[in-house]
Amino acid sequence: MRRFVPLPVALLVGVCAVWVACKRGAAAPTTGQPPPAAPPATAPATSPAGPGQPRVVARKYGAMGTEITLSAWTADEHAADRAFAAGYDEIRRIEILMTDWERPNEPESDVVKINKAAGKEAVHVSSETFEVIEKSLEMSRRSQGAFDITFAAMKGLWKFDEDLEKKLPPADEISRRRKLINWKDVVVDTKAHTVKLRRPGMRLGLGGIAKGYAVDRCAVVLRGDGLRDFMVQAGGDLYVAGSKGPVITWLLSSIPSRRKLLLVGRCPLAETPMLRTVVVSDVTPGSRTIAV
After folding, report:
1. Collapsing DSSP states into helix, strand and coil, what is residue 155?
2. Could you state, in order of their start, the residue ranges of all structural domains in the chain?
3. Whole-model pTM?
């Protein structure tokens, strides 16, 4: 299990990593529309270097509702591109498998199937989805419910990004949906590899863990394709391996403070939400309710 320690640069540093724990304790509220389909990689980005000399090669992609940046310290740009393409394909595979959004021309994910069958029947899922859900429930137990993948019952109440509404949802609707949030009502059958939500109206979302799992899987693919010194960034989730040469470490910047953090060797990270979107509502004189 990845453990986090708060840092003054607004990053949570994970150690002993295989899993990326949740950012923000649960996924951020979603918009009323699914994230756009993943765009192709942007134009090549490389740092200046002489012919045959190691340098930073980086590519940007779109997936899982965020920007994906793959970087490597290498003298073989073409090999890096091949590895990046394979790593990105792996991230997209995980996205299609575990998203809670329905998209045209894409098969229903395991999570969408589980949500549609809430209160009705158990759904057989892939071994990876089952493993991620089991790990999520373990984190729920260990956090005494602070991390809860059934938060998705609140989906659509708060409007952000292009659907931004500068108001709070009705209190009675919030109360109604809160009653549908309980990780103990997620029933898993280890032998049958099935998952069931006990009550109609329940939803689960893996936004607090699936992206981290995808980053870890991408790192495995990049290593398998021969990269040793690289970074994988997906929104606030980051995996760092190796270094930029024998003595130079990777340099990370915490936005918006721009403070720097030097990393040596392999290290997984997750970034705090930075209060990107805040809705403020005056309730009574002298008091405020802030929904993030």
Report:
1. coil
2. 3-291
3. 0.71
Which tokens in the block code for residue 110? 């395991």
The architecture that CATH gives domain 3-291 is Roll (3.10)
The candidate with the shortest Cα–Cα distance to 134, out of 186, 90, 208, is: 186
Mean pLDDT of 128-145: 96
Stretch 190-199: mean pLDDT, rounded? 96
Query: What pLDDT, on a 0 to 100 scale, did the predictor assign at position 33?
Result: 59
The mean pLDDT value for 114-127 works out to 97
